[in-house]
Amino acid sequence: MRVIGKYKAKEIKVMSLFVTQTYGDLLCGSRKAMNLEIIASTIGRTSIKLFGSQVPYYNADINNIDMEDYLPPETIYADLECFAPIKEGDGSRLILVWFQDSSQDPFTVAIEKLKTIHWEKHAEDYEI
């Protein structure tokens, strides 16, 4: 576990983190077609496979993707949890997804990506 931010004075922690190859499951196609497949399907399927269907996910790069260009080689899936609920429950949780170069430290990138999202809008409460 690593602390990467705060919400309502409680720590937001990376509970688990997975690194995958961005184009690892795709055989061929145009860049745009492959990128659309990754954005529309692969990320959602992988999130469900890793964390279950009850956990919301947010692609931190969704507004900055050029579908005609290659995406960075790694896709990161980070399970973020906070013991502060948004409305009610025991805490809140979000799967944060982003693309990065292989030379980057995913925990450092997670801190920066978390600064760009609105926790209350994208995370959901959970009960233990």
Structural account:
By secondary structure, this protein is of the alpha+beta class. It contains 3 helices and 6 strands; from the N terminus they run E-E-H-E-E-E-H-H-E. Strands 1, 2, 3, 4, 5 and 6 form a 6-stranded mixed beta sheet that branches. Strand 4 (74-82) and strand 5 (91-100) form a beta hairpin. The longest helix has 21 residues, at 31-51. The mean pLDDT is 94.
Percentage of residues in strands: 25-35%
Helix share, percent: 25-40%
Number of strands: 6
In the predicted model, the low-confidence regions spanning at least 5 consecutive residues are none
Termini, distance in Å? 18 Å
What's the helix-strand series?
EEHEEEHHE
**Helix/strand class:** alpha+beta
Query: How many whole angstroms does the radius of gyration measure?
Result: 15 Å
Q: Give the overall average pLDDT.
A: 94
Number of helices: 3
> Describe the biggest sheet?
6 strands, mixed
Gross geometry: elongated
Gist of the model:
This protein is an alpha+beta fold and 128 residues long. It is 27% helix and 34% strand.
